[in-house]
Amino acid sequence: MARPENNSHVDEVLKKLDGQHAKYKFMEYNLIAKKTRLQSQVPELKRSLTVIEKLEKQTEEFDTQFLLSEQVFARAKVPPTQNVCLWLGANVMLEYTLEDAKKLLTQNIAAAETNLEFVNQDLDFLRDQFTTTEVNMARVFNWDVKRRQAAKAASK
């Protein structure tokens, strides 16, 4: 920054650093949204896996309640079964055997937990970048203040 050609470009440098800071904020916002989604997805997948394991052990018909809509439940008798339908998202539901459903859910849990670790690492990296960018902005600003004070003192 101490180069003579940068004397008149302090505002441009600060604008670039501010733009970089804004990009990091946007990336952080997206990563936090992804982290929140993954944090809610993992327990949901684990609950589904627990239900599959219960169905594997179940040899007799049993009663349960299932959700029809928000706060509305119905009672049902569930016969012993070897197949379940899994909601995959994007309006897609597929029927799987209990064994295949268990494998798929286990894989999905592992993938979600791995992705959550990567998101946490990315957030840590971004926090470091925030700090570095903010320190650089402060240094450039302080350098400019000192430069102007020195120029003012020299002109007296």
What features would you highlight for this structure?
two-stranded antiparallel ribbon; rod-shaped; 2 helices; chaperone; Prefoldin; 156 residues; alpha+beta; Prefoldin_subunit_alpha; Prefoldin subunit 3; 18% strand; single chain
Total of helices: 2
Quaternary organisation of the protein chains: single chain
Adjacency order of strands in the biggest sheet: 1-2
Label the overall shape.
Answer: rod-shaped
Instruction: Classify the beta-strand content into a percent band.
Output: 15-25%
Low-pLDDT ranges: none
End-to-end Cα distance, whole Å, is 25 Å
SSE ordering: HEEEEH
Query: What class would the helix/strand composition place it in?
Result: alpha+beta
Characterize the largest beta sheet: strand count, sense, and whether it forms a barrel: 2 strands, antiparallel
- The helical percent reads 55-70%
Mean pLDDT, to the nearest integer, reads 92
What's the gyration radius in Å?
28 Å
Q: What is the tally of beta strands? A: 4
InterPro entries: PFD3, Prefoldin, Prefoldin_subunit_alpha
Coiled coil: 102-129
Organism: Dendroctonus ponderosae
GO cellular component, one term: prefoldin complex
